[in-house]
Each structure stands twice: as structure tokens, then as C-alpha cells.
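Researcher: Hi, I'm a grad student and pretty new to this. My advisor asked me to get structures for two proteins we've been looking at. I'm not sure of the right format, so I'll just paste the first sequence and hope you can take it from there.
Model: That works fine. Here's the first sequence with its C-alpha cells right after it:
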Amino acid sequence: MNTKASLSRRDLLKKGSTGLAALAVGPSLLALSQPLSARTLADVGPLLPPDSNGIRLPEGFTSRIIAAAGQRVRRSFWNRTAYHWHSYPDGGATFAAADGGWVYVSNSETINLLGGGASAIRFNPDGSVNDAYRILDGTNLNCAGGPTPWQTWLSCEETDYGRVYECDPFGQQPARLRRGLGFFKHEAAAIDPVFNMVYLTEDESDGRFYRFIPAGVNNNGSLQLDEGVLQVAAVDDQGYVTWLNVPNATPNLFETPTREQLPQSTAFDGGEGCWYSHGRVYFTTKGDNKVWQLDTNLNRLTVIYDAATAETPVLTGVDNLTVSGGGDLLVAEDGGDMQIVVIDKQGDVAPLLQVTGQEDSEITGPAFSPNGQRLYFSSQRGSDLFGGGNGFGITYEIRGPFGNFVKL
């Protein structure tokens, strides 16, 4: 960590986010009053042999293929939608629909000429597929991103001077470029709905960890993402963060990249997934196989998993992540053992599932359905036994007793 930005804790709190006066009743302190779960997803038991889809799951869990790259998304075996699923599926999230169904959104990490952008699958209340469609075109290498509390999807380009587009998961409104979130090699985004800020990761070996303070809040509760202040983290040797204003958040090819504009800011080795939950922002760095936690009340950053020091480094190739309704952190592996691994609130680490026979792929886009009963994810370069995905990606659904685990 960078020691040049060392300040007292009191100073750091003063320099932290606006609204820190809410510290005494912040969500992280409220979470501490919740009873500890008697069981977590780390306790589901050993993984069984691969099922018919090549996925190892705990007892009581099942898998199904939802979509395969290049193939029309199926409603049933004989009934297909008109939409061909995109290749190289990456970051994803779900959104509740008014009829009790939901939408799963997925990015396409390829160039515009080969698809790019993002797509969505609409589910009925019983979990059956209703439709599939595009929600973003004309962009490149859309890697991860993040959902917003106002039911939109932030799709991030992982390119030099990449951009962020706000998309309608239901396909009713056109996607919009959000300049306020900066131009850099974006990976993921997470919104803190308490302090109204956006946190962003950067996929560079010397990438930075950013936050965006919007100019205001719209009448519908959404944040103004075109105007505001982009900041970068400078971390002292105790983990406390000072947020520095980026001088030029939207540089062009001939200007200094955002990560190089403030040398006193802290470098992170390959920022990947990012997720907000109950006063914490979690993110991963693939270059050093670490999982980080930012306490948004205290502006303090800690490492909650480090493969180099873990007694049993079950988790490697850290990438996309999400949080279950019970507060368990789920981290997808890029390579590694092709697992989704649980880190529970007690710090226990265990695999939840493993994809076999696809060692050259990576797991992407883990997201629970709004009711918490189903888990979606993709094998980005996977193919099934019948050629589904053709090495360009498959999207899966996992069902099981997720509801047995205490929700916050």
C-alpha cells in the first residue's frame, strides 16, 4: 500500500465521503446487530461428481443450460426465441420484473464487429424463459459492470480509455454513455445507495480503485452519472483511504491516463469484480489473488482473502463476484479450478460449484435471482457435450436450497 498519503484517522474521516455524519447508524453497524447465520454457503458439503452438464455441485443442487453462444435462446426444447445468444459472456446481474419474473443481463467481452455490447434473458415468475434480446450495441470488450438500485445495468468497456454505458435491462430505453464515470480500462462498478457513490475497478497491472461522487440525485432516485467528481484511492499503511480528485476524468489518446495523473494514489494489480453489500464494497485483484473489503463508513480497506497466505488456497484466479442474501461472498475463478468459491462472514472458504472439462475457460457473471433461489453464471469460452457454445460461451442456472441460509 502507498504510505505517502498517511494521515490521521480523524483527518481521513474528515476527508472521506460527504454524509459521514451518518456513521453512528451506518449500514455496517446495523449489520453487526444481525444474528450470525447458523449455516452458510461454505457449509453446503462436498462437491459431487459432475452432472450431465459437467458441473460438480453439492447434494441437493441441480444445473441447467440457459443459453449457448451463437444459438437461439430456448424457451423449451422445441420452442426457441428469435435471439442468438452473444459470445464470450462476462459480467452479469438480475433485475426483478413487475409480474414476479426477472431479467438476467450479461455482457459480451468481444469487439463490436463480433457482437460486443450486452444482452438479456427475460424469465417468467416460474423461472421459465420468456424472451431474449439486445440491450447494448456498438461497444467493445464489455467485461463486467454492475446493477443500479434504480433497475439499470452499467456495462463497462475493458479497453484503453474505455467507457461506461447505462442500459435498460428490459430493453425499453436506449443505452446511454455516462461520461462522469471516466475513460479508462474499466472492469466493474458498484453503487453505494447510502452515500450515493459509485465505486469502480480498473483492469491494469497498475490500475486504480475509483469512486464517483455524482452532481446530484434525479427525481426518480437515480444518480446523475454524467456530471460529478471522479476520485482515486490513496491508501496508507493502516488501510485508511484518502480520496483524491482526478484532474482529467475523460482523457483522450494523447492525454495522460487517469491512473497516471496522481502518482501518490495506490496501484492495484488487476482490478476485477466489485460489489456493494451492507456498508461494504468488495473487489478482487487478479494479479495478486486478493479479495478486498472497503468499509464505506470508516473509509478503511482490508484484505479478507490472500491466496499467498491462506492456509488452504482454495480460491485462485479471482474475478467476478456477488453477495448472497445471507451475506456470503461468492467469487468466480478465471482459470484456477473453474470454481465459484464462497467466503462467508466468519472467513471460511469453500467451493460452491466447479465446472469440469473447460479448463481453458473462466467463470463469469455470477448473480442470484431476485428471490435468491437461483444462481446464474457463464463459462466464458465453454462448450457442452453437444457443441453448445462452440467454445464461445455457455450461460447456466443453478437451483438448490439457497433459502436454507439466513438472510440479512
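Researcher: Oh nice, that was easy. Here's the second one.
Model: And its structure:
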Amino acid sequence: MAPRSTPVLLIEDTPSLARVYAEFLKKESFTVISVETGSDALDQLADGAPKVVLLDLQLPDMNGMEVLRRIAAQALPCAVIVITAHGSVKAAVEAMRYGAYDFLVKPFSADRLLVTVRNAMERLRLAQIVETYERDISRTRYHGFIGSSLAMQAIYRIIDSAASSRATVFITGESGTGKEVCAEAIHRQSPRGSKPFIAINCGAIPKDLMESEIFGHVKGSFTGAVSDREGAAARADGGTLFLDEICELAPDLQTKLLRFIQTGTFTPVGGSKLEKVDLRIICATNRDPLREVEEGRFREDLYYRLHVIPIHLPALREREDDVLEIARHYLTDYAAEEGKGFTHFTAEAEQALRGYHWPGNVRQLQNVVRNIVVLHEGDTVTAAMLPPPLSTGGAGAHGAGPAVPLHHPHALQPGPAPQQAAPAAAPPAPPPQPPGPKPIRPLWEVEKDAIEDAIAACDGNIPRAAALLQISASTIYRKRLTWQAEGKL
């Protein structure tokens, strides 16, 4: 059996019993740390590492219950099993009150001990998983990102995992989703966080100057090069170089970038000296990079060299209620900047924000909130203050205006009807029959039909459908997963 990763701290002042218990545990490949006093036990627990604790209540320097109280007070990640020869209901109740996992009365068999320790270790493992999940799911701010949606929690976890590596990261996503924010988050979370973060927008610099911008140049290498100039690669030495809109690079520069990534060396424009740097490259694009490769605009070998850790940032419309968290954040910030008193949105304004498609993503939302703060006064943002297209409703807010039904009084504007012969009198119609009772359907079917109809009416946009149904988008995601698991979808 493989060694257990979580150690067992055995606190027992009788050496013969301590040896017996330790032998039982070591046969099952548990790592055992054995101490005889409460003070030594507290020293072992001071590192805060997860442990299964076998705690004797009768210790030479203090009562074992005091050790248990310290563990509870400091919320240490331990599963405590109390062992004592002086078992009583009162002692068991007090031990459980301070968070003990189980209570063993001496003497006990090896099997009883091992089963209890195994169960305690499993409980500790599950508790750590739950704690990690709750910590992650509660993150509403992360290195410049705002949002607690499931989509963003997944992004935060990828950044956590990728930050410590030297591997190249390739970020994709629509314009305005925060690709540079993501690159900075990776840099700040990494061991290079104290070193330079240098960003270049490959689409904003003329192609004939791009090589000089990345690799620098020497004096006289081209017209206007009046002195030596250090490029972004040299400035980012030890840190991170972020190449935004990487698909805009000219083909000849793509070749030089590929060699730079492979060797870590470059030559400034007009120079002859080979320079070497240690940096991490993060790149981003709002295009489909594989399509750029297929159509011959981006080198395939460069794509695979860069595409080591892919991160796709979700559009704002895919982030559940993050739109409201972001809007409230910027409302407070911009109101302080402009000297205004805005503090919150009305329910109608929040409904409009939640239901809008946001083609420009977070950048568009920032502009909308700035517009409101600059052009209006008050402490509450109403729906009437929202700028177009949010204020127009219909096509502006939801993509397509409602169709006018044929029976609508303005649907048709006919002229005078032509003279026609009066039709022959029809026989009287039979009296209408009262409708029978509607069949009763299961509630989940009614709910499922309403949700699926709303999603179809919104062209598959679940957050917009949730806004119209006045429920959370996460509720729809959760219910659809349940129906799928039960074979009802």
C-alpha cells in the first residue's frame, strides 16, 4: 500500500501503548509522529498542516481536552480521535462539542483503530475539498477581475495553476473581455511578479517598426534611429512579455519570434551582437487562431509553440450576474471620480443590464456606467438613465424586436373593401361545448418547457432568458444539468 500523505499525530504518554499504536498504523503505511506531552503536541500542530490526531486525554503536563480546545480555537485542519481509558458520556459529549471526530475507549483492537483513522483521514480530505471549493467560489475579486460566476471561477483556477510555470500562455476571447487583465494576473500570481510586465499591442504599431519595438535597434540602423534603443524583450528580462493581438504580426516577424521563443536569444535591428534574456511570453488575440493558421496568415509551428496553456475568456453575456457586480463596482468608482452621489441601481435598471447582450463586453459596460454618471444626478440609477441601446428595448436590448401579430390593430391598414355580393346566409352554428379539464402534467415538465422556450426565444442566450424569466442564469444551468443526468433533456 502507498504511504499516506497526511500524517497521524499520536499523543500518548504511555511508551508501550504508543509503540503498539504506532506499529498498527505503520503496517498500513501511515506516517506517524509520536509525542508524549500536550506542549510537544501543540508544537507539532503549530505548522498548520493537515493531520489526523490521536489524542489521549490524560497527559503529564495538561489535560488532553485543552489540546482539543486549542485546535478548535485556531481552526486547525485536523481530524481528532480522542483515546482514553476513562471513558464516560460526559467526556465524549465535551470532546464532540470541541470538534472531535471520534472517541475510542481503551483497550481497542487494531482493526477498530485502523478503521477509525481511515475514516478520519477521508473526512479530512473531503473537508479540504469543500474548503477549497468554498474559497474559490467566494472569490469576487482576483487580480483586477471582478466576478464570482462559475465561468470566472474556472478562469481563476487555471491562472492559479498556470502562474508558477514557465510555459507560454495563449489567451483568446472577444474584444473587451479582459485579456490584458488576465495576462497581468498570471504575471502577478507567478514567481516573476516583482519583475517587469511589458505589454505590446501588435496591431497598434506599424509593421515596419514592430521588430524594433520587440527586439530594439542600434543607432543608425534605419532613418530616425538616432540612438540605441532597448526593445520590449530586453526590458522584460526576468519578467513577462505580453504580445496582444499576436495574429497581427507580419509573416517575416513571426519567423523571428519563433526563433526567439525557441532559443531565448535575439539580435537588435542593425546589430550584430546576440543577446539572451529569461522571460515568459503570454500572447492574446480576439480572432480564431486556428482559422488564421488554416488561411495561411499565421505560422502553424509558431501557433503550436505558443499554444501551450490556452485560456479562453468568457464573454460578459456568459457570466451570469457578473454584469451587476461589475456595474456596481464602476458606478461607485466613477461617482467618486466625478463627485456624484450615485450608489446603486433600481431593480428595473438592473434587469435591463442583465438582459442586454453586451457585444462590447466589460469595456462597453464601463462606457455605459461612465455615461450615466457624467450625464445624470442623484443617488440611484433608474432605467430611464440608461443610454441607447439599453434604453430602446426591443432590437437594441435583446437583438430582435417583437414581431407584430397579424391581429394587432396596426398590423394591416387596408383600404375600402371592394363591393361584393352578400354571401348566402349560413346555418346557425352549434352552441360551443365547454372545454374539458386540462391534463395535469408534472411540474418539472412545465418548468422545463418554460425554460427551453425562453432559451429558444433568446437564440440560445441563457443569461438573457434567465433575465426574462426573472431567475438566475445559474438556476437554468443547474436544472439543465439535472435533467440531462436524469435523461429528461
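Researcher: Is there anything I should tell my advisor about the second?
Model: You could mention this: The first strand starts at residue 8 and ends at 11.
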